[in-house]
Design goal:
Blueprint (H helix, E strand, L loop, with lengths): L7 E2 L10 E2 L6 H9 L4 H7 L7 H11 L1
Antiparallel strand pairs: 1-2
Length: 66
């Protein structure tokens, strides 16, 4: 994935290419797992506070879960 507007990025040099939130080392799969487990976005952010540095994804996620 490329381009500054992407919220999720993958870099072979970071976590073996696992998709992560831009600017963090938080795998996107962690968010999916939390939501599938019935947890809220706020609970996810409590556990992974560095993900809050990617505010664009949070706005998008809130719109899709509201």
């Amino acid at each position: 994935m490329s381009g500054e507007s992407n919220v999720i990025v993958s870099d072979p040099e970071m976590l073996g290419g696992t998709p992560v939130f831009r600017g963090t080392r938080v795998p996107f799969k962690n968010l999916v797992d939390y939501l599938e487990g019935g947890h809220s976005i706020d609970e996810f952010l409590d556990q992974f506070p560095s993900a809050i540095r990617a505010p664009a994804w949070r706005r998008r996620a809130i719109r899709t879960t509201a």
